[in-house]
Amino acid sequence: MSESYVERLAALGIVLPVAASPVANYVAVVRTGSLLVVSGQLPLVEGRLSANGKLGGGITVEVGAQAARQCMINVIAQLQAALGDLGKVRRVVRLGGFIACTPDFIQHATVMNGASDLAVAVFGDAGRHARSTIGVPSLPLDAPVEVEGLFEVEDC
């Protein structure tokens, strides 16, 4: 890798936030062997949602994709907090996206591309991943998007 993941983030103008603490009875990250699972992250910026509401009900696809991108930034912040070094990420294995939307909304994949595109921009070929994107009636705090991830990481 000629360019580090941190350098790629900087080139994209991204400064990772402090990883958010869980708000209920769960942990933000679980590691088993060489797999690391990051719990679902909302599009929080400085502790506040970057957008709220439903896709198809006031939130545009573009705003939704930006929210998914912010969720992915927060997923990466959790990785940094758990690993101490993003260079330990070998691969983005899977991303899961939850899109709060109206029943007639059908552009879930386009919204989730906000997260997927960032994963590839930061991690390169190691960022190409499997994915599920699911429409849901609501999300915590009236968030429009939530993103979770599964990563292969170096053994410590």
From TrEMBL:
Annotated Pfam families: YjgF_endoribonc (PF14588)
The Endoribonuclease L-PSP/chorismate mutase-like domain, residue ranges: 8-143
Protein name: RidA family protein
Species this protein is from: Lichenicola cladoniae
Lineage: Bacteria, Pseudomonadati, Pseudomonadota, Alphaproteobacteria, Acetobacterales
